[in-house]
Amino acid sequence: MRFAELVLAVCVALTPERLRPLREEQWRADLRDGPDLGISEFSLLVGALCSSSIARFHDALHRGSILLSHLTRGKNMKIALGLLGVAVVAVGGAAVWGINAAQPKTDYAAMAESQTVMGYEGWWNSTPTDGSGKDLPQETVAINTATGQIVDAFNRAKNDAHQPTSISDVHFDVVPDAGWPAKSVVIIDTATGKVIESFPVDEKGRPVLKTS
Question: How far from the centroid of its chain's Cα atoms is residue 110's Cα?
Fold first, then answer.
């Protein structure tokens, strides 16, 4: 197996399951066309590895928050802490590998800065530990309040069938609300049209961590 294929396989494995087909297609297109644009294959692979590690890290954090929420109810304490610990260690190891493998001249920071984040993981599109999502939203859209555009979509039926959800798969008419928080992403349950979650983002759509 070529080195590029091996690294790509690692990137796909690290990526949250519902995003794998789209991300793999994008990475293969980058590897095919990037060298013609003066971008080395190595730089593209490092970028893909870092991107997938970050996506897995965010996925682990969101899933960890869901598991930890059960602690307040006295459920699955040992399982929740154990799975969260394993996820953090695994993602941390992958990130360290990617950093050590990067060439000094690779300006990945500039590459990442130029990319707009589209795709968010949270309790609304997660799968509970018991495998049943009947009490969770069946379909959601993520809307950037700065633009009023849908930037992500999720359909639980497609996810359960191991199929990615494209924005075009979800039919939802966006009606901007003055009550939406500025410079944020709001998650809307398409069945009710109600905002069920929101979080601040920067101009590239990256979540802004709240500081105490």
Answer: 20
Same domain? For 153 and 63 the reply is no
Which DSSP state fits 182? Answer: T
Question: Is pLDDT at 102 greater than 60 in this prediction?
Answer: no
Of the three residues 88, 113, 138, the one that is the final residue of a domain is 113
Kindly tell me if the per-residue pLDDT of 173 is higher than 90.
yes
* Cα end-to-end span (Å), the chain: 48
Are 127 and 185 contained in the same domain? yes
**Structure pTM?**
0.49
Token pair for residue 55?
Answer: 């996506």
CA distance 144 to 44: 28
Exposed, middle or buried: residue 133 (CB in 10 Å: 0-12, 13-18, 19+)?
A: middle
Q: Is the pLDDT of residue 140 over 50?
A: yes
Is 19 in the same domain as 109?
A: yes
* pLDDT of 209 higher than 60: yes
